[in-house]
Amino acid sequence: MTAHDIAFLGLGIMGGPMAGWLSKHGHRVKVWNRTNSKAQAWGQKHQGIVATTIADAVKKADIVIACVGDDPDARAVAEAAYTNMAPGSLYIDHTTTSAHLAYSLSQATQARGIDWMDAPVSGGQAGAMNGRLTAMCGASNAVFTRAEPIISSYCATRVRIGEAGTGQLAKMVNQIAIAGVVQGLAEALAFAQAQMLDTAAVLAAISKGAAGSWQMDNRWSTMAEGKFDFGFAVDWMRKDLRIALEAASACGLDLALTKLVDSYYAQIQAEGGGRLDTSSLVKRFTVGVAKP
Ligand code: NAP
């Protein structure tokens, strides 16, 4: 595989391990993080150079990859990057953002002769750590072909959905589908516990049938134990659902269940659970918010 000069911007729960995989795959990696101490810690663990400014990180890179927070963060980081990138280079954004931001950044980068791909991911912290993420990609065919070998360092599945912005729309589909499943699982578990059933026995009985899901296989037991430290934070889920609900409303769709689950996540946030993972919806039963 060809080694590239890659700048990675944003070393959070997701970005840190992704940048680590690029380095392990032999790329020349330069990292930047807003809080410099995190970048220094990354540099202690991995082969690569730590930059103190975005301009320094990107100026000699042929590929720049970002994974930050919300729309304003993704915009600020992209703008600071592409104004210092060379024509012919490629910008990949793994941040989950609105589709209109992705589209607007694709226009701005392309005007400078820079390729663009929005590539939000699923698979969570575990997927980032073990290099088994899924990327939903919005780019031309040619750009996707260029980007795919790079992101395959940490994405086991890469799917081109369509042109710029469509990666973000596919991620919204993913989050809409998850919201209802997690709430269904939380209600099922709360009911099993209220009936004082052996929840492990219930899991063994129902998980291979029509009730089964990834969430059930991976979260039922941890939810039963009250463990909510699995990476994808309620704060991020609310951001994703807000983006999805805005996009749905713009095309005239009323996503009633998504809205309801979003309001339940707002309750978890109000109880101080913004950094708990999304399966913490079940806490609404244990702390009494959902009791009649
Ligand atoms: P995180 O651990 O909170 O890290 C966020 C990163 O973004 C940090 O490096 C942070 O820098 C940086 N950042 C935030 N705002 C910034 C700004 N204005 N300027 C520069 N840097 C900024 O978040 P994460 O879990 O890695 O998530 C990152 C993205 O991936 C989000 O869009 C999230 O929705 C998405 N995602 C997350 C998961 C998951 O399971 N965690 C799964 C799929 C998708 P500091 O260190 O300075 O704060």
Automatic annotation (TrEMBL):
Whether NAD counts among this entry's keywords is: yes
Q: Where is the 3-hydroxyisobutyrate dehydrogenase-like NAD-binding domain?
A: 165-283
Domain of life where this protein originates: Bacteria
Q: Which residues form the 6-phosphogluconate dehydrogenase NADP-binding domain?
A: 5-159
The UniProt keywords, alphabetically, are:
NAD, Oxidoreductase
Pfam families in alphabetical order? NAD_binding_11, NAD_binding_2
Protein's name in the database: 3-hydroxyisobutyrate dehydrogenase
What is the organism of origin for this protein? Candidatus Phycosocius spiralis
Q: What is the lineage of its organism?
A: Bacteria, Pseudomonadati, Pseudomonadota, Alphaproteobacteria, Caulobacterales
